[in-house]
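User: structure tokens for this one?
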Amino acid sequence: MIKQRKITRLLFFTGVFLFIAFGYAFGEMKIHLKNGMVVTVPVSRDDIVSINFEETGQTGAGRLLETLNVPNDKPVKVTSVTSLEKGQWYIIEASGVISDWSHVKEGVDAVWCYAEWRCGKNGEVWNQLRINGKGLPDIAGKSIPYNPQHVYQVRYLGEGKRIELYCSDAQGSASDNSGSFTVKIFQQ
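Assistant:
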């Protein structure tokens, strides 16, 4: 009986020691979601190198198939590796800002010129990103409102081939341009 109490005390104090030791050495990361849920992940602060968030698109677009970089400082056309299956719907997401002038580094996104000094307070639709020769509103079949985060999504019906992307202004006067667009293709 005495031996059993000693073992119980030993286990209790060992547990308290481990709780104190690991409680201070490790912590937890809490992720608060919009729906009120909290996800808790036990982790040591010293072990965290970086935290990355991979988006699946604003509309819950589906599985990411490919990410492309479309430069505005070279007269190039970028072709997707992925062939978009005929009759299959995809989401194409374009983000980023570019400049068509040497004295500024922004002012144009995939759809809009928002540089007030050049395009006025309300901006202008410029459709600088072209996909198979069309701007995003042409693909969407409707106008696309300006987004100050410079992220746009359109549904795209696959044609059984790869898509070709380019910056419109870069095709004729890339020497004073800068920036690039990031384009993601999601399968719906």
